[in-house]
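Assess this:
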Amino acid sequence: MANFEGQEFKINKGLIGFLVVAVITLVILFKSAVTMGAGEAGVVFKTFSGGVDTENVLGEGFHVILPWNKVIVYEVRQQEVKEKMEVLSSNGLEIEIDISIWYLVDFKNLPRLHQEKGINYRDRVLKPAMRSAMRSVVGRYTPEEIYSTKRDAIQIEILDETKTILANQYILTERVLVRDIALPSTIKTAIEKKLKQEQESLEYEFKLIKQKKEAERLKIEAIGKAEANLILSASLTDKILREKGIEATLKLAESPNSKVVIVGNSDGMPLILGNK
């Protein structure tokens, strides 16, 4: 009986050892398996061999790493960051501007970004660059230009200056959108009134130009008619007029309702007198 119990104890001890090994193996596999989702990339931190792996980036899909290493996941698809702040125009007026910027992290240099900037890179690097660019660009324009005619130019210039500031910072900016520009109500009203007056002035100027062109057209037409009459008058000599008169008289004489009486006239033209 004692031997049987010892055998059972040995069997149970072996089973326990197997289960322990299996659990450890599963834990290691679980810790070693990493899956990157769509639009994600991973930076590997090697705990016992040099820290951040600056040579390799984990792309989308399944990966196996050493269980004691760590993976820091970053979003690498296009992202948006918004910023609203008050800045001064060229004449010192305070203006509130609200913008969005579309950006990407530099995939190839993602380990460098993590090593030098960290996961809070937006607050540490991107937003300060945006604020600096906004102050610099808006400070070149008057409130009227900012509100009415220069929004597209402001967007381009903010983007260009942000790119310059972020050079070698592993962040790629793609586009800047000015979502809103808020001026003091009195300034906004004055600008809108001025723009309305300018529009009315342009419409009036267009009407004047149209009337002037119409007058020129009529003048040219009148000159053409006068020149044509002069040419016609110059070509109508006495002989031609007499010949035309004779032709007309003959046609009238052929009418059955007319009685022809030809009398010598002072200008030599025949006359038709009386009816049938």
In short: The chain is about 55% helix and 20% strand.
